[in-house]
Amino acid sequence: MTTEENLKVGRHRDSSLTEVYELFPELLARKDVASMMLSGGEQQMVVIGRALVARPRVVLIDEMSAGLAPVVVSRLMKGVRALADQGLAVVLVEQFANLALEIGDRAYVMRRGAIVHEGACSTLIGDPDRLHHLYLGDQGEAA
């Protein structure tokens, strides 16, 4: 399947690909390329684009940065922030907490299946010691 065919799968009948191409213009230039030939970052853009054209109220993105170059991750994060700014609720699960904190509004930190922190992202940005403690607990705590 080409990039454009992938974007059309599951598309809401009132949905256009224009907003996907505006969010990720690099996909327009690659619309006729087989999706399996795209870079990892471009494939992530297609995944986000497919979700977008389905007209969801909430989108869950899990480990978007996994295996991608930092410049590509930065581009994807800007796209996700733009979606949130347009009113889409985004739940981002991310191994690199600072990436998520930089673009997020609210943060939930989980440890051992329980929420150990909930609050504004701004309360954790720039406080690596607190973030470390939230993730790992007290030094004497068993893993």
User: What average pLDDT do the residues reach?
Assistant: 90
- Round the Cα radius of gyration to an integer and report it: 17 Å
Instruction: Please mark out the parts with pLDDT under 50 across 5 or more consecutive residues, or reply none.
Output: none
**Beta content:** 15-25%
How many individual helices?
A: 7
Task: State the major sheet.
Answer: 2 strands, parallel
Describe the protein:
Helix 4 (40-53) packs parallel to helix 5 (70-85). The protein has seven helices and four strands. The mean pLDDT is 90. It has helices at 3-8, 18-23, 25-28, 40-53, 70-85, 97-103, 128-136, and strands at 58-62, 89-93, 106-111, 114-120. The chain has two domains: 3-95, P-loop containing nucleotide triphosphate hydrolases (Rossmann fold); 105-143, no CATH class. The chain has 143 residues and is of the alpha+beta class. The chain is elongated, with a radius of gyration of 17 Å.
Write the layout of secondary structure elements.
Elements (H helix, E strand, L loop, with lengths): L2 H6 L9 H6 L1 H4 L11 H14 L4 E5 L7 H16 L3 E5 L3 H7 L2 E6 L2 E7 L7 H9 L7
In short, what is this structure?
With 143 residues, the protein is of the alpha+beta class.
